[in-house]
Amino acid sequence: MKKITITLFLLSIISTFSIKAQNQKNASLDVAPNLSPVTTVFENERALWDIQFNYNATAATAGDVGMAGVIFFNNEFWVSKWQSDTIYRFSATGVLNSEFIIAGLTGVRSLTTDGSYIYAGTNSNIIYKINPTLQQLTPPHITVNASVGINVRFCTYDATLNSGGGGFWIGNFSTNIVALDMSGNPLSSISASTHGLTGMYGAAIDNYTAGGPFLWIFDQSGTSATTLIQLNVATGMQTGLVHDVLSDVGVAQGLSSGLAGGLFISNLLVPTKITLGGIIQGTPKNVLFGYELTVPTGIDELGKNLFSVYPNPVSDLITVNFKGLEKKTIYTIYDLTGKIVLSGTIQNENTSVNVSSIASGSYLLDVVSNGTSVGRKLIIKN
């Protein structure tokens, strides 16, 4: 046992210096400034990490590397090229749909969405607002309050912040993680000494997993520089749930090394499942990947009496009845393209929701409570 322990320790040191040397050779990758050897990270919940997809993004873009931000929006991946003004749109199956430039926007490190707009972090004090239909900036943008003192490398939209008014979690490599309102003012903070991470690059808010909310961080400070780490928002501390993306996605794609890039969470990619996805700034290629984060039980398995919506069809007010309600119960109404048209929190087992502002048509009402996602087709007639 002693010999095995020593061998593993030596291998971790060799791996760390090998990865650092490789990253220093490739200036097209966005590397954390303080990548130093840290305690080896071991995963402890392997059952969660079924790979849903892994796509070679570099092949689709004729050899481009150094991709950073990523979001899944309107059934497409939006991916930014680091230190550039280029944005790519990939289909849900990894096919390049278009490559374009958003005037006035460059150096995008992170992308996130509130369902209507896309927001970009560029390692500055501004979160840029993008109209995805017009593919152009849509001021006013969000300027981070000077008291925060953080440039935005990662930003992830959280509809539950500010009592349901929405906001962002932001951070940059080894900084505090700060929650902002939609005007850029601080709401709360997780100190760097509490979360203990020094290579934070991508982040995604997790309001799905039981016991949350959680923040998932795609971190460059692990021995592989591609480590997914779960933080408990309430305590700000690491939960111990971690995963090395290079160990499976990287192996499948033949990567010799990689760096953590952007991160997102979506319930629209794979039916009845939640996707924790991101992009590896890899050598010799960039890889879009997605893991199964949770496996919400379908409505048929839960029983028809657990979740009901009435009247349906509806023109104004619906009543959402959800038995066994938890404190963090969120409802979301999607149109048939996957766009969020309305969202909020359910405060009790019978909650009224006003849908009179939504155009007539067919929609999906999704309710997430205690790690379980259930849905109903909703018909609106206005």
Oligomer: single chain
Give the biggest sheet.
5 strands, antiparallel
Supply the number of structural domains. Answer: 2
Percent helix among the residues?
10-25%
Number of helices: 6
CATH architecture of the largest domain: 4 Propeller
CATH H-level superfamily title of the largest domain: Hemopexin-like domain
Shape: globular
Integer-rounded radius of gyration: 21 Å
Total strand segments? 28
> What is CATH's topology name of the largest domain?
Hemopexin
Distance between the termini: 70 Å
Structural summary, described in words:
With 382 residues, this protein is mainly beta. It contains 6 helices and 28 strands. It has helices at 2-25, 57-60, 161-164, 192-195, 249-252, 299-302; strands spanning 51-56, 67-73, 76-81, 86-91, 96-101, 110-113, 118-121, 126-131, 136-137, 142-143, 154-158, 167-171, 177-181, 186-190, 200-206, 214-219, 227-232, 238-244, 257-266, 274-283, 287-294, 307-310, 317-322, 330-334, 340-345, 350-354, 361-369, 372-380. The strands form 7 sheets. Strands 6, 7, 8, 9 and 10 form a 5-stranded antiparallel beta sheet that branches. A 4-stranded antiparallel beta sheet has the order 1-21-20-19. A hairpin with a 4-residue loop joins strand 6 and strand 7 (118-121). The protein is globular.
